[in-house]
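To: structure desk
From: M.T.
Subject: fold request, one chain
Message: Could you run this one when you get a chance? Sequence is below, nothing fancy, just the single chain.
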Amino acid sequence: MPPSPLPHTLRPTGLSPSTPRAGPHPAPSLLALAIAALLVTSTHVHAQQSPSAVRPSTAAAPPVSAPAGDVPEPALPVAVTLDTILVKGQALDVRDNAFSTTRVTGAAIAEDRVSDIDALFRNVPGMTVRSIGYGAVASSTVIRGFGAGGHGGDLGVVLDGIPLNEANSHADGYVDVQVLVPLEIEDLTVYRGPVSALYGNFNRGGLVAFQTRKSGDYAEFDGSVGDYGTVDLQAALGVPIGDRQQLNVASQLFHTDSFRRQSQTDRRTASMRYGIGLSDRVDLALSARVHDAEADGAARVTRAQFDVDPYGIDPRTQNDAAFKDFRTLRADLNITVAPELRLLTFAYGTRQDFTRYFTRPVAATRFLQREETYDRHVVGAGTSLNGRSLLAGRPLDFVAGVEAFNERTEFQFFDGLDNRRRVGAALNDRETEIESVSAFVESTWRAHRLLDLSLGARYDRFDGACRRLGPEAGSDPCDTLATLDNVSPKLGARSQLAPWLQLRGSYAEGFGLPGGFTKYAPGAQSLDPNELRQVELGVLLTPFDDVSLDVVAYRINSSEEIRTVSPGVFENFGATRRTGIEASARWQVTPAVELGGVYGYADSEITQNRNPALLGNVVTGVPEHTGTVNVAWRPVDALRLDATYRHVGRTWLDAANTRRSDSYDTLDVGASWQLPTRVPTRLYLNIDNISDRVYATATSLSFGEQLLTPGAPRFVRVGVQVGF
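Reply: Done. Structure tokens follow.
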């Protein structure tokens, strides 16, 4: 049996040499002319991959354009059935574009024995997750020199093409990936930098696009128990129903008492997707997702406390907690217009309640408990045209479409609580609303046997308003969001100069809306979006079949950043420059041994600021160096041993660059044993942080006090996987 891939080995997509593939039937020349005009006149980019396809497990992969230099051979038209339906944007395989991406397959996720999806990101070069220690609250993610992903607006996340980011929740762009079940993921792709037109706002540092399983005949279970009363139970089921229907369901139950007192966490998640072929040309899919979470919170500890008892709790911390109730429904309609032209339409609605209580310093020696409650209502719809054709006799894959979303959030903010009991008036009690309309186009054109071009653009328009629901003691602005719009081009080129050498380069623009309630201030109505411009150059070396090395250098200039001139008065003033190097490597040393790793270097520098003393300083919260090394060894077919070493470098804690966090290193080891049973069964053992290293996953300054979130000590988990 050949060795399994490394659990954490993520192959950069869009970078490997092209291999011959069967080509699709060319569309009529009239369609080619129409698409050429679309590329010139349209104002938006790439397709969000919304699922409306249902494919039995026996289905072949969807046809993809032939490699550069080969014109696809005509194929006989075939009646569209469930095994050939494309999801939106699927015709544009990320492995064929010129932008730097990292892709993880569902098989690799299962091999990695994942209960926490955040763990997958440590194998993306330059990407770091900083847990804040609350079980029902999203972590903060660093990507390409931006430090507020997930817990802020620097990272876009889409699930089957639908945005998960929250426009006006705990922080603009806040997103919690724990609403997914690891076993339901077909694959995920990390777009590094603002290169994807799948998403607009919150795509500053990059985008994570999750695709769920929509086909197959399978029944899988992954159950484990571990230290600190940890239990994780996951199940996934795929059932073809006749020739024209498909059901996919998944669920997860997770509980832990945690390694700190007052940190118990419970999560319950379930998802369902039912697809039916209404005719040879029309397919319908209905999806639903339910997620509930509740967690106690031990909050952060001061530096002095951490040095004495890193897993303790500050005596000033009250009974902090977080609660989330997430529900979403979705419908997809897939119409085959022509053999190589499909119209994909979706509509969805989401309802979410989220409440968080947390204690933090508000002065040098004063701690208060805060309550934030959000009630979100989101509705959205969109349609896209996905196709393949020829342009100037060369293969062209394209997608173009429009989308609209409306998000309303009722927000209440109370401070100075007495153990979750409100003792004063609300600082904020209001409803905010954001409406967005987007148009996009993206294409991959094999212009020459030595040149593939990725071309696209995205247009976004935002409107909104804020209204007070009751008396407020705070002074945050609450008025109208004046219309803001933005056009973001994305351009890239890739060349396979030799079988072992591939070069690529790209230019992409992105943007970000004014943060928080600033966007609703009368004095901010003339502000422009924060503008981002990225340039990157990359090289992929594959000197041997069992060795690959991908290296990319990038620069992102962020301008039109917003500052407060005086209370209620704002202006576009401020800029930063982020430069970095990212590398991914893989070496199949022997048939039984594989090595892999990723490395990221990031330099985020302030280039314009109202305070001249800050010019040239490094942005806070971004480690300069990060890296992961993986090794897997299969001494016999049934036994697999693996280890993962992780390094996260120091970060600056203050804008003046006078105080820094500590770096840390961890080592995780694991083993799995395939049993000789009729139903595939695998036993496994994970030992995380085997050296029992004491470290902090996140560090910050508040009123001069250094606050730390302790990382987990040694953690042992045993489990069983059935049906893989």
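Reply (cont.): The CA atoms of residues 69 and 449 lie 4 Å apart. Let me know if you need anything else for the meeting.
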